[in-house]
Specification:
The structure holds two protein chains of two kinds. Chain A is mostly helical. Chain A has nine helices and no strands. The chains are: A mainly alpha, B mainly alpha.
């Protein structure tokens, strides 16, 4: 609405020849900026490319977010055979049983949509995945909230 | 003025103080005083969180997550020994940011409460 009025007033000024070149330039600059702002508002964060960009830029500013995202990506990409034995220091130290043993494989099977195998690897795979996704979404929501409040997100 | 009020909070981090200064500058002095009192009671000290994360190496992992109101993560850490120690190490590296995030949430909540009073 304001943009519309500004455009009309500039147009009238140009018609009446009582505006300098410099003023026209600054006005156009202002209008362009506001238009871009409106476009951002409309497409917002729901525009996929923008939201993906926001997600990755916040990943590099937040170690925890980066950690969970890369862990899930790793589990999604890896073929689910023997990475667990390389990774887990407890297993390397010689412990044969742990209540969380198989959780990584379970989530990995889940991300490959093999639900039976996931249940067999560890029954708590689905809640585990949900908890991590909840945490990721919480971190992003917090960043968005800080940006909305015009506060510097750390 | 607001800086003097914030000085009443013991163990305040510089980043946290900057955030709070920005955050409470629109409140009235009386509201600011209420805010500081409530916030001081609710906030967590990063050092406590670090110690709780360190306990993950010798005993129960995930206490820091419970303290920061992340019950799901806490249970996950508890059952898996801190996600096979990796989560514990992440928390030790990241304890400050995690605590500041929690404290920011607390600050937002507290400000809403103070404005209602």
């Amino acid at each position: 609405m304001r943009l519309h009025q500004a455009a009309i007033s500039v147009h009238i000024k140009i018609l009446e020849n009582r505006i300098s070149d410099l003023e026209i330039e600054s006005c156009l600059h202002l209008i362009m900026r506001q238009m871009r702002g409106n476009a951002n508002l409309i497409s917002g964060l729901w525009f996929p490319a923008r939201s993906i960009k926001f997600f990755f830029s916040s990943c590099f500013k937040n170690a925890e977010l980066l950690c969970w995202t890369s862990a899930l990506l790793f589990l999604a990409i890896s073929t689910t055979h023997d990475f667990h034995f390389i990774l887990c220091p407890l297993r390397l130290a010689g412990f044969t049983w742990c209540p969380g043993c198989g959780l990584g494989r379970s989530i990995s099977f889940l991300l490959h949509l093999q639900f039976n195998a996931s249940w067999n690897a560890h029954p708590l795979g689905i809640p585990g995945l949900l908890v991590i996704l909840k945490r990721i979404s919480d971190l992003i929501k917090h960043r968005l909230l800080l940006i909305k409040l015009n506060l510097n997100p750390l | 003025m607001s800086q003097n009020i914030l000085m009443n909070i013991p163990g305040l981090e510089p980043e946290e103080m900057l955030f709070l200064q920005n955050f409470i500058k629109d409140l009235s002095p009386e509201q600011q005083q209420n805010f500081v009192m409530l916030y001081n009671g609710k906030r967590k000290d990063p050092q406590t969180i670090l110690i709780m994360a360190l306990i993950g190496f010798i005993g129960v992992a995930g206490i820091q997550r419970f303290m920061l109101n992340q019950v799901g993560m806490g249970i996950l850490y508890f059952l898996t020994g801190g996600l096979c120690l990796i989560g514990t190490i992440v928390d030790i590296v990241n304890y400050k940011k995690m605590t500041i995030e929690f404290n920011q949430r607390v600050a937002i909540e507290t400000a809403a409460m103070v404005k209602m009073i």
